[in-house]
Amino acid sequence: MADNAEILSGLAEIVEEVAGIDAGDVAAEKSFVDDLDIDSLSMVEIAVQAEDKFGVKIPDEQLAELKTVGDAVDYIAKNQ
Amino acid sequence: MSARLSLAPVVPGARIIGMGSYQPEKIVTNDDLAERVETNDQWIRDRVGIVERRVAADDELLVAMAAEAGRLAVKDAGIAPTDVDTVIVATCTMPYPIPNAAAQTADRIGIVAPGAFDLNAACAGFSYAMGTAADLIRAGSARTALVIGAEKLTDWLDWDDRSTCIIFADGAGAAVLSAAPDAESVGVGPVAWGSAGDLHAMIEVRPHNNALAQEGQAVFRWATTKIAPVALRAIELAGLTPADIDVLVPHQANLRIVEAVAKRLRAKGAREDMVVADDIVHSGNTSSASIPLALDHMRAAGRIRSGDVALLIGFGAGLSYAGQVVVCP
């Protein structure tokens, strides 16, 4: 089980890999859409990789609710 | 007393001996669509990868497009239409289900009395039809088969639905398959195919407006995760490894799906210099026609050479999927 800091850094690596955004810019308070400019298809790719990495399920309905990086970290922490 | 039935002698396999394609003249740009629905050029380029697409005239028939692609493929093969004994048209957009497209398409080309049938596996149709034709040839049921993917998707669009009208387009592509004289010249590998009927509602024509609707995000997730494993199975069935693939021709659904599939195959050993089809940019998504259109265009542009090993992989409504390795003519 990864702790929140580990989840954040793991998620940041995925975001960098999928969307080309520097992992250092992926902070908990950042909004995926408004701050990081990530579109819905990239969000799906991020979700798929996060599922593999953290052993969670992130269905599309749930994905729409994850507005910020922090929302995603919390969801993964609760469901891993 | 039971009769003993004789069967045709089995041949080593099939190979592609000719290709052809046809697209309607009319080009519709992203800006043209932005005049009708709330969208813009950059959004379409970013999400789907399409710059322009071809749209058939109102009176331009699917069978006419199929026949033109087929005629060019027969010509490219250097054979006469009368040499063809089997015609399969992969399509899901005939205006009416009866009569089928294949028989009248054959007649338009001058192919006399062939076995002729349509095959509906939507965007996977061309790979399904190639697999079927190659196995008919291998079993001795056919000697020379014309396989056509032809679609007039714009007959089945709601032009006010911006999630679909920006994506789909019209066209036809074809390949001629014939019996390979020996094992070394076999050019169509075994088909890896399947379906997921539980997800049928993900891409469907809705009865209230007879128009195609799809759950874009769900389709994207399915295609980017489930298709690369099918492609790898097709490579394995052909006795090859991902590094042997010179050209990747996925169904041209969305450039980002194409890129995601290529990335997954490269992670499994496909080469960085593997050529990846991007025909969607100027052709749009033409369902069963997209793979042969891409192949024919890449051949014409010199991006594919004779003898190149190409991996074809179709996927779409059904849901259905199919792929095989072929040797380019």
Automatic annotation (TrEMBL), chain A:
GO terms for molecular function: acyl binding; acyl carrier activity. Keywords: Cytoplasm, Fatty acid biosynthesis, Fatty acid metabolism, Lipid biosynthesis, Lipid metabolism, Phosphopantetheine, Phosphoprotein. 4'-phosphopantetheine is transferred from CoA to a specific serine of apo-ACP by AcpS. This modification is essential for activity because fatty acids are bound in thioester linkage to the sulfhydryl of the prosthetic group. InterPro entries: ACP (IPR003231), ACP-like_sf (IPR036736), PP-bd_ACP (IPR009081). Its main location: cytoplasm. It is found in: Cytoplasm. The keyword Phosphoprotein applies. Transmembrane segments: none annotated. One of its GO terms (cellular component) is membrane. Belongs to the acyl carrier protein (ACP) family. Carrier of the growing fatty acid chain in fatty acid biosynthesis. This is Acyl carrier protein. It comes from Pseudonocardia sulfidoxydans NBRC 16205.
